[in-house]
Amino acid sequence: MWIAFALLSAFFAAATSILAKIGIENINSTLAVAIRTIVVLGMSWALVFITGKHSDIAHITSKSILFLTLSGITTGLSWLCYYRALQIGEASKVIPIDKLSLVIGMALAFIVLKETVTIKTIIGGALITIGTFVLIF
Predict the structure, then answer these.
(1) What is the CA radius of gyration of the chain?
(2) pLDDT tens-digit series, residues 7-58
(3) Which one-letter DSSP state was computed for residue 25?
(4) Residue 27 DSSP symbol
């Protein structure tokens, strides 16, 4: 089931990039991120209440709050940088560079989470990196 969600995530991320590029045409990229954030916030809280998970709030630990807050900060910074790059650059070049986050995320998973490094992940990461440079140059 996780593969289906991952594929849907990839599709929606791709659609997000194209829709964002069109949407930021005549507005400031920071304002665009603020608008997007309001929409994401509304959708997220709606799903929390629709699925009845709002009662789980009482069980959130301080560690979870800390790391989710840090994740939110890095998400915001990523979105601000991404939208600015989309506004001033070509989407076909910005999108692949942004996807280098896959390789960086894998490296962080190995370093921070102590996940196992395999030859397959090294080759895959190298191919993604090479492919990104092929696409942007």
Answers:
(1) 17
(2) 999 999 999 999 999 999 999 999 999 999 999 999 999 999 999 999 999 9
(3) T
(4) S
- pTM of the complete model beyond 0.90: no
Q: In this structure, are residues 136 and 93 in contact, taking their beta carbons and an 8 Å threshold?
A: yes
Nearest alpha-carbon partner for 102 in 136, 130, 134, 61: 130
Q: How much is the pLDDT for 12?
A: 93
Q: What gap in Å lies between CA 72 and CA 80, rounded to an integer?
A: 12
Angstrom distance (rounded) from CA 125 to CA 15: 23
User: What end-to-end distance do the CA atoms of the chain give, in Å?
Assistant: 36
Helices (H), the chain: 2-23, 29-50, 62-88, 91-98, 101-111, 119-136
